[in-house]
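Session log. Operator J.P. requested a structure for one protein chain; no other inputs attached. Running the standard single-chain path with token output.
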Amino acid sequence: MLNSTNSTEDPQAATLSDRAGRLAELRRRRATPVLIVGGGINGISTFRELALQGIPAILVEQGDWCQAASGALSRMIHGGLRYLETGEFALVKESVVERDRLLKNAPHYVMPLRTTVPIDSYCSGLVNAGKRFVGLTERPSRRGAMVIKAGLSLYDLYTRAQGAMPRHRLTGGGETRRQWPEFNDWVKCSATYYDAWINYPERLGIELIEDSERANPQALAINYLSLAGMDDGVVTLRDGQSGETFTLAPELVINATGAWIDRLNGVLSPAAAAPRLIGGTKGSHLIVRNARLLAALNGGMVYYENQEGRVCILFPYFGNVLVGSTDIRTDDPDDVVCAEDEKRYILDSLRFVFPRIAIADEEILYTFCGIRPLPVSDTTVNGRISRNHSLKVIPPAPGRPFTTLCLVGGKWTTFRAFGAQAADLALRHLGERRRVTTEDLAIGGGRDLPGQAEQPAWIGELAAHYHSDAARVAQWVSRYGGRVTALLDFVTRSPDRPLRHHPGYTVNELRFLIAREQVVRPEDVLVRRTAMAIAGELTPELVAEVTEIVAQALGLSDDERRASLAAALESLAGRHGLARLAAPAPQPIPHPSAQGAHDVIQS
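Structure written below.
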């Protein structure tokens, strides 16, 4: 059963495995058929689709991969039940199909999620639901059992075509009380159905990039590289680390910057007023550690309507509870902090469904926020703005000889379909044709991953083969899926040890991530390559320890390490509500080679 396919690397792909190698390759290039700007999930998906067709596309991201909206999703992979009410049947069908493909192609990160809807009546909302469907009203209202059952029955039709999920069921008041005794007294019955959730969305994005570059070594993806300007068809890219600039003449620019689409179009078309495409909304979430709340969820998600009829969610996530979200109109794509009034709104909504559970301030472990790149809309109700995706073509203009293709809107769940549509349009523009389809193509660690029943034996074989602890190997399988063989090849080359301030990770494990996944800053590891931050596990000491490992791996000086630590603590405190980390920085962690023999384990 052992399979080391994932650890076999193409020599050129290995050369580009670090960011310095990618920048060196970029210096050699003067032109590119396609430049994709924006390293969120839709830009990454488009890059993957084009790379698989043999196109030497270049993907750049001003920050880290999936740092903005693509890292601020509700962690749901879902069909969009509520979009049935607005008549977006095609979107729901596409979403259900793509959800089920992700369950099959990325089973290491995407899993089924039992979802329960508490209901306050049997017949309420019928009239208003009909009015919303035909566009006579935008006012949200609470939905009764008949409305919800009608929607779930239609949802089942799409779901059953794929055969991946059980049918929905309605549960009467008595059984609902037995299963969810903490529900508010207004709950008269409930409905349960299945969607899916994703545990490591940012890691999925990284694996898509790795797959793309391995399949096409001429394709190039570089983070912390922004488009700084354009002159007569030649764009200037600036490295956010060194300040070095690069020039590149693209034949086609794909604007996948999400909430920044209009801003980038202004840079690319300074002489002409580009049409406004984005009317984003701000979505904030909380991570809460409250044992009573976690138990009240009964192992699944609760999908409910608050006092004003707006849909909210909460479900178990890394041993805590993820609660969300807000939906606030904003014109500022950089407004990515969960404000105090948003916290109050989320907690007020939570009390509406679980009134006897109080959440203390110190139980809010982490906050995250992103701007949904929704299409510009004149609706007065943000929930009515379509979550569908579209492609907008901006033809060449004087001083800009290339076409710009803008990716507008979209849901995380449908990234593959959206990227495929964008790539097909790009291929037509280039006079190329599609060679490979991705509907049934496994992603990263989803390849070579045995089924659940076979995994224990496989893990035992891996542990024996690599002389590693079986519990640790199982933990790594849960994080990296089939890519665990590449990790084991790396970590067993030299003595390894657990982190001092988080024994759930090892030093060589982090070194593997740094070496393979374009880590530039400590936050890349803390927030996106691992779940340390969102799981509520960060302490000043842990941040300092991880910063030390990153600094050693990247060859940073002591001054650079101290600056990186200060920047990481400031970012985590400001962006994620972790003010407790803004304490005096701990003393540097000694170099691993200086640790006593009792600290070292051989993986």
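Operator note: The mean pLDDT is 88.
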